[in-house]
Design goal:
The complex is a heterodimer. Chain A is an alpha/beta fold. Chain A contains 14 helices and ten strands. Chain B has 18 helices and 14 strands. In chain B, helix 14 crosses helix 15. Classes of the chains: A alpha/beta, B alpha/beta.
Amino acid sequence: MSAPTVREKLAILSDAAKYDASCASSGSAKKDSLQSGGIGSTEGMGICHSYAPDGRCISLLKILLTNFCIYDCSYCMNRSSSNVRRARFSIDEVVKLTMDFYRRNYIEGLFLSSGVIRSPDETMAEMVEVARRLRLDEKFSGYIHLKTIPESSAELVEQAGLYADRLSINVELPTDEGVKKLAPEKKPQTIRLSMANLRRKMEEKAEPTLRTKKRERFAPGGQSTQMIVGADKTSDDGILHSSARLYGSYHLRRVYYSAFSPIPDSSSSLPLQKPPLMREHRLYQADWLMRFYGFSQPEILAGSSDGMLDLAIDPKLAWALRNRARFPVDINRADREALLRVPGLGTKVVAKILETRRHRRMRLEDVGRICHSIAKLRPFIIAEGWSPGGLTDKTGLRDTIVKSCEQLSLF
Amino acid sequence: MQPAQLDLARYTVRLASQTDFAGWRDAARRLTLNEVRPEDISWGVGSDANDPRDALPAVPEGAQLTVPREFIAHAETAFCHSDPGRFAFLYWMLCRLRTEPKLLAIASDPDTRRLEAMEKAVRRDSHKMHAFVRFRKIGYGEDERYVAWFEPEHFIVERNADFFVRRFTGMRWTVLTPYASADWNGERLAIGPGAAKGDAPDQDDTEALWLTYFQNIFNPARLKVKAMQKEMPKKYWRNLPEASLIPDLIAGADEAARDMIARLPTMPAPHHAKLQAKHWPKREPAEAPDDDANTISELREAAKGCRRCPLWRDATQTVFGEGPDDAKVVFVGEQPGDQEDLAGKPFVGPAGKVFDAILDDAGVDRQKVYVTNAVKHFKFEPRGKRRIHSKPNAGEVQACRWWIGRELELIKPDLAVALGATAALSLLGKAIAVTKMRGQVIEREDGLRVFITIHPSFILRIHEPADKEAERERFLSDMREVKRLMGS
């Protein structure tokens, strides 16, 4: 067989990377090329340059350096026992591809991951070298996300942090038992320690240095992780428990949930079914409740019978239906925390309500004008001239709301 | 506005261009200060020789226009909207704001909402321009340039040009659109007239690679066409090279996904066995036996895999004791905290610092003492990005006593210091009132003397400076007593 062309390698190594959910290019420090005269900028907000028919954004060139791998994780298409075609990019090829794509405005930057070849350190060193060349040789100021290899040395991770905007380490599965079963060579202990070290390093570098009083640049976009949902039996409550622990312990910016997707040449130990996309969606919504709506993890599913999120309705609505004693909430008087718990009111709408009501009392139709749909809201609020009466405690309330939401979505 | 009304307009304003905000601002200022009503103005763009152009009234002497400063920023954004009625609408808003200065804060007002919707449309279109401009390279070496054709929905080229300058400083580029163009020669930005699609190059040698990427990063098992179209509306497709692939990818997705699911697991790849033999020669035993340790370092190693209680699940690691294995005194705290859990060492957090400083003041050499905790895993409640310490229960203390017991057996200290109630419970096997027993020495059945005092974190929790200092003094005198007991 002749050596594969760059295009053939790109096909293999982007196909191999498509199971990684993360593609965000947001949350980094602002930087641009005006000073350096080079190429690239990050402005805090991420930009999605394209969308694939799977509805996921394409923000970064997401590829593997190589899909050769010494690990045999059964959920992974690149595990050593898989018969998938293998390829390996050279450092130069990745640098050139990134710059060529970036100059044409196809991408925000690079998301580089890799199978582990020979040793974790050797692989990690090559990834760091890609980032170093982009930053120093090419004067590239775009976004770089490196998927660090947990077993690699602390020095390499420290170097990675100098060049990358974000570093991540996948926890892979929500529980240690799951990792043990499906990724026998991976050690949950090592993954945690790597995350702990990253948090410590980020905090240390965030302190202004004595000499220059400037903060050193170290992975300004923080760290993130991914766990696969639906490959083992962990309940949503268990998954959210893991996330809450990860956010609290290692200050992750994001936990990505990736619905387990069947992979070609899949291992027999895994469910062969379509990925549970709705479950993944509900988990993201629940994750938002923890991060932006002041919910603690245990209360999101407290009182549910099976610890699973309701697939038909969003988790905040499901919570409200289980906690009706806390409703209705008075739109004109309630504090921010209480308003944030009302189904259908997002953080932006709540901010608008708080501002508007300083100047006039709000009626139901006023609220209706600034939120998406009043159908969900009506039973849970009191407004000028509106009281839900017995509606809040009605037995068939869930079905009524589900129906009215369905009707709306027809248009 | 109906044509009949147009004819009746007393004032006609002609702006220099679609984005002539300064012109609008000047006209609006003059007109509103002369109390001209919105319905008496006809707004338009471009000069027309046949158009009777009424001179706009001058600003009356001494008149001042006061509008909320934020309105200017809002108006500037909304001004880029393609709606021809925007000049009149913004004037209408300006008039309303003169009598209702709080109008912009009332989100439910229909005019405020219209302004917001216009701004949102402009911002969204700008964001899409940042995303969907596709440069094509022409020329080589000295002549290398990047040219893009883009069709924005609103008048946003001027507004967005700086973004492209910041991003592509080291490149020479031109963005062509139907109404304006932006050109950067590496040093200067020039805004020029509109162009036609044919003025832009229609191919680029890297595009094939981009299409290859687009095709392969798509997972057919996750088809979500609606989600894609919501973010990448079809109106942008005609200028996105990759969009030509979409129909076929969608059409083939079901089969591709079925194929992924149906393909049976095959035999392991030929090199798999070799790799396994080389890199994973022997599987580690499931649980390391933890009772054959003969030294503290062996014991520490064994404790790494401790599963005696469920606390290991949420903690990062076992935080074992630290210090010389022949120490005369062993200090026992409660449990590791946030910092200890990350570092894997006891007493490195805020309480540890207080403890160190006081030991130093008391003349106790920290290098010569052994410090450990009653419970070796951090127990906490996650709250946002913080971990709130939660007290280990009796069961957890009991489970972890096994380790403390082994530590004491191997070190054989003269004295153990119980820092706080949990430590006392662990060392004595029963709950005692620390505040009452503080400063006392209790001898265990095995002869070990246990000195009772508080945990140094107690000092940290006192807010009143005088009380804090007093408590620190008390703890210092406890440590001096410990030093005395060590010496005897």
